[in-house]
Amino acid sequence: MLLLYGGLFFALFIRIIYIQATGVVDGQELEVKAAALYEKEAVLSAERGKILDRNGNIIAEDTLSYRLIAVVRPDATTDPKEPRHVLDPAYTAKVLSQYIQMEESEIYQILTRKLSDGRQPYQVEFGVAGRSISHELMNTIDKEGLPGIIFASDTKRYYPNGSFAAHLVGFAQKEQQKNGTFKTIGKMGIESIYNKELTGIDGKMKYESDIFGYLLPNSEKMIKPAEDGSNIYLTLDKTIQNFLEESMSKVYKQYNPESMVAVVANPKTGEILAMSQRPTFDPDTREGLENNWLNDVIEDVIEPGSTMKTFTLATAIETGNWYPNAEFQSGSYTILDRTIRDHNNVGWGKISYLQGFQRSANTAMAHLLQMIGDEAFIDYLKKFGFGEKTGIDLPGEATGTLLTTYPINRVTTSFGQGSTVTPIQLIQAMTAIANDGKMMQPYVIDRIVDSANDKTIKKSEPKVKGEPISASTAKQVREILASTITSEVGTAKRFQVEGYEVGGKTGTAQIAKPGGGYYYGKNNYLYSFLGLAPVEDPQLIVYVAVERPQLAPTEGGSEPVAEIFTSVVQNSLKYLNIKPEDAAKVETTPMGDYVGKNSDSIQVELSNAGLTPIVIGESGNITEQYPDKNLAITKGSLVFLKTDGAITLPSFENWSLRNILIYKMMSGLPIEIVGDGYVESQSVSANTVLYDSSPIVVKLKTPKEMYTVPVDETEESAAEGEILPQD
C-alpha cells in the first residue's frame, strides 16, 4: 500500500511539475483557455462623418436612437412580483407589432425561438425593425409596461432639414453584416458615393472580468480608440437651398407638374449653391423615394428647347456671323423636304435677327446656322461641353446626344429640339457666358475634413474647362439675353427681378413620346429658363425646368418657371449682399487695424465713425477683428472685436444669418441656428455673462415671398410656345 500510494503521489507530483513548466493539458494551453474565460472585448463604435453645407450647417449626422431588446429567459427574474423577462410572448408580439415594422407572427417567432442546442437564449433582438427607434417611440412603447422589453442606446442617421437636396445628399441606413453586427451604409447620393470617407473605423477595449462580468482588480484595460468618419462640406449654401426648396414646393403644389428640376450655381467658380427636384423624398423615412431614384440634374437627359438658342447666338457672334439689324423672313424655313415653323406658326413677317432672338424665332436660328456652317456650329457646341460629361464630382452622369446625322437634325439642334443635354451641361455652358468666356467645371464637394483634428484631407478648387468664346462675345450675349426681358417683344418679361438687371432665355420644349413623335397641347411641354444675374457682373446662374404643369386656361407655361426663378434670384442676391442697381449710394468707411489695441478706446472710435462695435470677451486688448483691416464697410455695419475673458451675450435682434455665423465662429459658442433670414428670438437673454457651454438657440424669421411682376394679356401673347384660347 505504501508503495502504491507513494507511486501515485510521485506521478501526481511529476504531472504538476509538467503542467507548471509547459502550461499545457491534453494539448490545450491553460493560459489561452483562462484568457478566453475571463478576457472580454467591447466594441467602441465609430461615428459616421457629418455632411454639412459650405458654412458648417448640418445636413446629415448621427444622432441618438434606441434599439429594442426582449429578455426571454425566465432566470432573468429574481422576484416574481417584478418580472424581468417576457411572460406572455403572444400578447407582447401583438403590442409590439403596433409600433415596429414587423408582423405579429414574426415577432412571436423571435420571442419563442430556441438555440441550436435547444436552450432558450437570454435575450433577443428584432433586426432592422427594432433599431433606429426615436426617443418618443421608445417612451411610448415603455408606457405599455411589457415585462422583459428593454432598450439600449444606439445611433441613427438623421437629416434635420427634411427633403433638403434629397437626391443630391441621398441617405444611409443600418444594415446587418455577416457577423451579425449592424453598420450604417450609404445607399444613395453623397452618402453612397463617399461612404468610405464618411464611415469610421470601430475601436475596441480589452479587459479582464470575473464570470459575472465585473472588472477584476489590478487588471489592465487595452483600448484602441474609434476613428470617426471624415466630415464632408458641400458647396451648397443652406440659405439659398432653402429659398429654392420653398419656392419649388409652392409651385409643385399649385401646378401639379409631372416633374421639376432647378439648379443655382456660382459662375465664377462652378460651385453648385443649390440643387433640387420634384417629386422628392424624405431621407429619414424614404417616403416618396419610389417615384424616382435618379438625380435628374445629372443623370437624366432632356431636349432643352429654346434655352439652346443662347449658344447658337454665342457661336454666331464668335464666328463673325451676327448682324443684329439685318432682316430675315420669319414664319417658316425649308430644308430639303422638311419645313420648320416658328412657335406661332405664321411668324412676324420680315424682322431683324435681334428681334428674332427676342421673340425666340426658330427660323432665326436656322438662318444663323446657314451663315455659321454646320461643322463650325457642331464644333462650338462641343466646345461648350455638350455631348460629353461635365466631370462633376457625382456618379452616373449622362452625356446627352448631339444629333448631327442629317441636315434637319442640325437645324433643330440650333433651337434645342432633337439633340439631348443634361441640366448640369446647360449650367456649365452658361458659365462661359457669365464668366467672360471661361467655362467652369461644376462641383458639389467643397472639402473633406478629418473629424479628429479638423485638418483638410481634400479641397476642391475651381477648374476652367475651356474658353469657347471671347470676353467681348460673352458680354454681348449677356446684353442680348437681358433684352429678352426688357424688350417689348421679348418672351421673358415675366422674369424681371426688382432692383436687378437679369438676362436669360426661355425654353418651351416638346416632350417625346416613348414610341416616337411628340405630345401636343399647352400642358404637354417642358417649360424652362436659363438665366444669370446681375447681367453686368453675374454672381448667379439659375436653371429651372417644369415639365407638364397643369395650367389654367389664362396661364402661360412660363408662369410657374418665373415664380421660382424670380423668388430665388432676388432672395439670394440680397442674402449675398449684392447691391440693387437702383439703390442709393451709401457712405463707406475703411477698416483700421485694431489688433493689439484696447477695446474700450476702439469702441468709441468705431461708434464715432457710425459703426456698431461688438466685443466678444471682456475689456482688454483686441486679439482678432472682423472685417479685416483696409476693407471698406458701410455706415451702421457691425464690427466684431475678439478679446480674452468671459463673454457677455449681445442682443441678436434683427441680425442677419451672416452676422450670426460670424459671431458663432469668432466666439466659439454653441449657437444653434433655426430658420433663415433675420433673428426673431434668442434663448439666452442679452447681457448674460456666459460661464458654461449650454447651447444657445437663435431663431430666424423665414424670408417673405418677394415681389412678382404682374403680367398683362399682351405679354402672355408674346410668351414663347404658349397656346392661347382662340377667338
UniProtKB/TrEMBL annotation:
Keywords: Membrane. PROSITE patterns: PASTA. One of its GO terms (cellular component) is plasma membrane. InterPro entries: Beta-lactam/transpept, Beta-lactam/transpept-like, PASTA_dom, PBP_dimer, PBP_dimer_sf, PCN-bd_Tpept. GO terms for molecular function: penicillin binding. CDD domains: PASTA_Pbp2x-like_1, PASTA_Pbp2x-like_2. Its main location: membrane. It comes from the Bacteria. It is found in: Membrane. Signal peptide: none annotated. The keyword RNA-binding does not apply. One of its GO terms (biological process) is cell wall organization. Residues 585-645 form the PASTA domain. Pfam families: PASTA, PBP_dimer, Transpeptidase. Belongs to the transpeptidase family. This is Penicillin-binding protein 2B. It comes from Ureibacillus xyleni.
